[in-house]
Design goal:
Length: about 325
């Protein structure tokens, strides 16, 4: 197995293949409990969408989250995202609202006969977003958001309702000097940042997760699906770059009229630098997972010489 490069656990496809399958349900429970810290303490759950056979629909990737039922009145949705696409918080709120609607209690036959039109008996829903990039300006790596009254001169901070909760887990903010193996949040965050971290290899849950990751990484079919998924992400970045370019062109015209060309050019350069960094990261990841320069060229649409230049490969 040492000859096979591990696939990226932060890929939504790979993450779901490790944590979103029935045989690894106890790993998912452990991960959820490490984040929720006993509120609630999950002892069992039902994975609602373990099916991942249809990764692509109309040449586009479908949603690869993990949905689970903690109990008949409590549900959780777990997302992992490598990058901040600019609307993560909005998406998190939307997904939570959808989960609330889908899982609300249906009216009984007696209630409908009595003329009742709607029920307000909603379940509790929890959204967990594990991010490879920071999306909040808070210092802690794990932050919970909920509906609450902000503090005033007369009243203290007060949670309005505990049925809607969103957790943002930002991996970049997690960097302890030493991992506490008794703290499963430390353990799982370390695993998601580096599955081969020596400090966590003795933890049984990590051993099982790593064995699954190694098995997936050694499977040629799994690697192909993974690369197709990466290709889609690459395409998304390319489309985003085009949109950024169009926006900047429009901004430049407006900037000329308003005399703000310098500021616009600076912003354009920063966006291009970020896009180039994303592109280089994606290409290097493809090379590291075993694809040839020729295969990467076909997937990315870049010329072989440009790929070699970006990855410092010799001819």
């Amino acid at each position: 197995m040492s000859e096979t490069t591990l696939l990226d656990i932060q890929s939504d496809y790979i993450f779901k293949r490790v944590f979103g399958i029935e045989k690894n349900k106890e790993l998912l429970i452990s991960l959820i409990n490490s984040i929720l810290k006993g509120n609630p303490h999950v002892t069992n759950l039902e994975i609602r969408n373990s099916e991942i056979s249809k990764i692509f629909k109309n040449n586009l990737t479908i949603h690869l989250d993990i949905k689970a039922e903690i109990n008949p009145q409590e549900f959780v949705d777990i997302e992992i995202q490598v990058r901040d696409t600019g609307e993560i918080i909005e998406r998190a709120v939307q997904y939570l609202a959808e989960m609330l609607t889908v899982n609300c209690r249906k009216l009984t036959e007696e209630e409908m006969k009595a003329g009742r039109k709607q029920t307000y008996k909603y379940p509790k829903v929890i959204g967990i977003w594990i991010m490879g990039e920071n999306v909040t300006d808070r210092e802690d790596a794990v932050n919970e958001a909920c509906l609450a009254f902000p503090p005033t001169e007369r009243d203290e901070y007060q949670i309005i309702i505990d049925k809607l909760r969103i957790f943002f887990v930002e991996l970049q903010k997690f960097h302890p000097k030493h991992v506490d193996r008794k703290n499963m949040l430390d353990v799982w965050m370390s695993f998601l940042k580096n599955p081969l971290n020596d400090e966590i290899q003795s933890v049984p849950e990590v051993q099982k997760a790593l064995d699954t990751l190694k098995e997936i990484s050694a499977d040629e079919n799994e690697r192909e699906i993974y690369m197709l998924r990466q290709h889609t992400e690459f395409g998304y970045i390319s489309e985003k770059n085009v949109a950024v370019e169009k926006a900047h062109k429009s901004g430049i015209e407006k900037g000329k009229a308003e005399g703000e060309k310098i500021g616009i050019e600076k912003g354009k350069a920063e966006e291009r630098a970020k896009a180039d960094a994303e592109r280089m990261k994606m290409i290097k990841n493809m090379i590291e997972t075993g694809l040839s320069v020729e295969q990467v060229s076909k997937i990315s649409g870049l010329h072989i010489d440009e790929i070699k230049k970006l990855t410092n490969l010799n001819s």
